[in-house]
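Support request from a user on the community tier.

User writes: "When I paste my C-alpha cells into the form, the page sometimes reloads and wipes my input. The last time it worked, I copied everything first. Here is what I submitted, just in case something in the input itself triggers the reload:"
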C-alpha cells in the first residue's frame, strides 16, 4: 500500500548515532511517497554518514555547519519555513536533552529552536543513557511541549547490550510522520472498529471452512483511518503485517470470535459518550466523537455443526465425507448499533440483483451505509484494486476503480457525511 505524500515537504534531522545510516532508508520512504525531503545534520552525524549520501537521495543540498549560507535559504532559519514537519531520526540522548532545555549549540538544534511546525523525534541510544533520569525527564518535557515521540525498539544494541534503545523501524517512523501530515479533524481521535478477513470455521484441528477474502481492503481502510488520526481497533483473521503499531489489532479465527470481539470493541468505543438528549450548549466542547464500525470481514454463513478434536483420519472417514453444517450468528443483525455509525461491505457476483441486495442491507441489517462491490469470479479476490459504490438511503455514489488505499480515502470522505448532527456541532464550535 503506497501512501501519497505528494506536495508535502519534510525536514529530516540526523544526529550522531550508529543508526544514522537508517535515516537513508527513511529518506527513501518519504521520496517514494512523493514528498520533498530536506536534511540537516549535526557534526557528529557526519562521522557516520556523509552529507553527499543524503544529497544523492534527496537531490537537495544538506544543511551542515559547513554548508550554512546566508546568501540564500540554506540556513537554520529559512530551511524550516518551507517544511511541513521536522523529524529527527535518530535522536541521540544528547540531542534529546538539549532540545528539552532549548539549547541551540549546533546547526540541528538551532534549526529545531527556530522551527514553528510539528516536531517529531525518534530516540536511539544506549539503554542506560535513555533510562537516565535526565533523559527520561527530557522526554517528558518534550511530550509536554507537543513533541511526538516514536518509541525505540528493545533489541541487541550496537554496543552489545540488550535492551530498549534501538531506533524504531523506518516504516514505523514513516507512518508517524505521514499521520502528522495527513490528519483529518473529523477522524482524529475518533474510535473506530474495523473487521477484516475471511473467517475459518473449524472442521477438526487441521481443517477448516473458509473463503477467498484476502483482508486487503480492511487493511487499507485501517491504514487510511490511522493516517487521518483515528483510534483504530482492527479485528482480523489475517494478521496486521504492513500496518503501523498504532493500529490496535485483535486476532480472531471464526465467526463466533469476530462477533464476541466486535461486540466488546463497540462497547468500549461507546464509553464516555454523552447522549444527544442529555447534551446542552455548554457540553458541546466535551462531546466524544461518535464511533464508527466498518464491517469488512467476510464471515462464513455456515460452520460445521460438530467440530472434531484432533485430526480425523482419511482411513476412518472413507471415500466420501458428509459434513453437517449449521448457520453462524448474523453479526450485523445481532450487534447493538445504537450511537455508532455502521458501514457494511457487500460483495456480489450477480450483476442483475447484486446492487438491489446491497440496498436491502440498509433496512435488513439496520446499517447506515453499504460499500457494494461487484465481483467477476473467485479471481477477483486478493487484488490490489477494487471498485466500490457507496450506498445510503439518500444516494448511491460510485467511487470508481482505484487501488485500495486510495479507495479507502474516498470511502471515508463519504462516511463523514453520515454524521450530519456532529458535523454541524463541529462547525458551530
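"...and here is what came back when it finally went through:"
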Amino acid at each position: 500500500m503506497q501512501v501519497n505524500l505528494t506536495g508535502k515537504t519534510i525536514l529530516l534531522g540526523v544526529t550522531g548515532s550508529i543508526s544514522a545510516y537508517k535515516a537513508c532508508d527513511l529518506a527513501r520512504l518519504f521520496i517514494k511517497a512523493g514528498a520533498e525531503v530536506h536534511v540537516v545534520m549535526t557534526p557528529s552525524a557526519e562521522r557516520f554518514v556523509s552529507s553527499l549520501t543524503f544529497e544523492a537521495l534527496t537531490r537537495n543540498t544538506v544543511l551542515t555547519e559547513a554548508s550554512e549560507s546566508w546568501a540564500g535559504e540554506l540556513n537554520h532559519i529559512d530551511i524550516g519555513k518551507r517544511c511541513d514537519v521536522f523529524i529527527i531520526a535518530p535522536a541521540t540522548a544528547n540531542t534529546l536533552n538539549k532540545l528539552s532545555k532549548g539549547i541551540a549549540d549546533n546547526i540541528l538544534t538551532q534549526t529545531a529552536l527556530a522551527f514553528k511546525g510539528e516536531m517529531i523525534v525518534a530516540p536511539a541510544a544506549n539503554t542506560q543513557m535513555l533510562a537516565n533520569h535526565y533523559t527520561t525527564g527530557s522526554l517528558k518535557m518534550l511530550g509536554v511541549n507537543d513533541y511526538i515521540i516514536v518509541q525505540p525498539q528493545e533489541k541487541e544494541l550496537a554496543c552489545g547490550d540488550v535492551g530498549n534503545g534501538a531506533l524504531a523501524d523506518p516504516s514505523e517512523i514513516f507512518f508517524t510522520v505521514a499521520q502528522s501530515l495527513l490528519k483529518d479533524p473529523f477522524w482524529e481521535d475518533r474510535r473506530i472498529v474495523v473487521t477484516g478477513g475471511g473467517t475459518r470455521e473449524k472442521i477438526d484441528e487441521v481443517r477448516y471452512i473458509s473463503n477467498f477474502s484476502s483482508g486487503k481492503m480492511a487493511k487499507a481502510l485501517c491504514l487510511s483511518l490511522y493516517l487521518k488520526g483515528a483510534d483504530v481497533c482492527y479485528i482480523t483473521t489475517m494478521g496486521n503485517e504492513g500496518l503501523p503499531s498504532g493500529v490496535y489489532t485483535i486476532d480472531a479465527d471464526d465467526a463466533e470470535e469476530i462477533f464476541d470481539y466486535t461486540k466488546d470493541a463497540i462497547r468500549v468505543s461507546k464509553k464516555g459518550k454523552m447522549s444527544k438528549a442529555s447534551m446542552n450548549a455548554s457540553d458541546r466542547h466535551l462531546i466524544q466523537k461518535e464511533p464508527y464500525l466498518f464491517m469488512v470481514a467476510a464471515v462464513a454463513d455456515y460452520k460445521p455443526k460438530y467440530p472434531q478434536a484432533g485430526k480425523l483420519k482419511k482411513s476412518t472417514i472413507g471415500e466420501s465425507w458428509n459434513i453437517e453444517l449449521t448457520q453462524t450468528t448474523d453479526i450485523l443483525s445481532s450487534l447493538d448499533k445504537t450511537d455508532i455509525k455502521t458501514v457494511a461491505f457487500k460483495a456480489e457476483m450477480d450483476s442483475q440483483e447484486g446492487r438491489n441486495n446491497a440496498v436491502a442491507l440498509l433496512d435488513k441489517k439496520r446499517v447506515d451505509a453499504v460499500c457494494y462491490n461487484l465481483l467477476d469470479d473467485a479471481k477477483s479476490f486478493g487484488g490490489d484494486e477494487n471498485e466500490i459504490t457507496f450506498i445510503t438511503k439518500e444516494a448511491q455514489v460510485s467511487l470508481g476503480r482505484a487501488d485500495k488505499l486510495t479507495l479507502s480515502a474516498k470511502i471515508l470522505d463519504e462516511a463523514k457525511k453520515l454524521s450530519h448532527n456532529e458535523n454541524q456541532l463541529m462547525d458551530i464550535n
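Agent notes: The reload is a front-end session timeout and is unrelated to the input. Residues 255-270 form the longest helix (16 residues). The chain has two domains: 9-181, 184-428. Escalated to web team.
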